Amino acid sequence: MAVENIPGGNEPVLLIGLKADIDAALARLGLPPRPKALARRGSARVWTVRRAAGGPPVAVVSVRDAPSLLALRRPLPHYGARSYLVFEGSRAVARGVWRAPGHLIPVSR
Questions:
Q1: Residues 61/44, Cβ–Cβ less than 8 Å
Q2: Helix (H) or strand (E) holding 45
Q3: pTM
Q4: What span, in angstroms and rounded, lies between the C-alpha atoms of 56 and 51?
Q5: Hey, how many other C-beta atoms are within 10 angstroms of the C-beta on 19?
Q6: Are 14 and 25 spatial neighbours (Cβ–Cβ below 8 Å)?
Q7: Which end of the chain is more exposed for a tag (fewer CB within 10 A), N or C?
Q8: pLDDT in tens, 41-83
């Protein structure tokens, strides 16, 4: 199924597909490309991106093939606090949290 746009609203979006399809969808949707640190590693890569116009994050699951996606069924739900993951089969071989941009908030009395 082709992804033409991401629905608006306040709900997060989950984008799942084969590597080439995900790369094409990210480009079509104007989302940042696959992070270079995740480019050639593992059978599956999972990461989050923010939309340029703001709004809720997009979680991306990019897999080599159908068995790679099936291998994520059990382990993936246990990594909810991570910004990115690299899996080889069902084993997480890399994980981390993106650095959050800081926002200064003036405080006055």
A1: yes
A2: strand 44-49
A3: 0.82
A4: 7
A5: 17
A6: no
A7: C
A8: 899 999 998 776 777 788 999 999 999 999 999 999 988 888 8
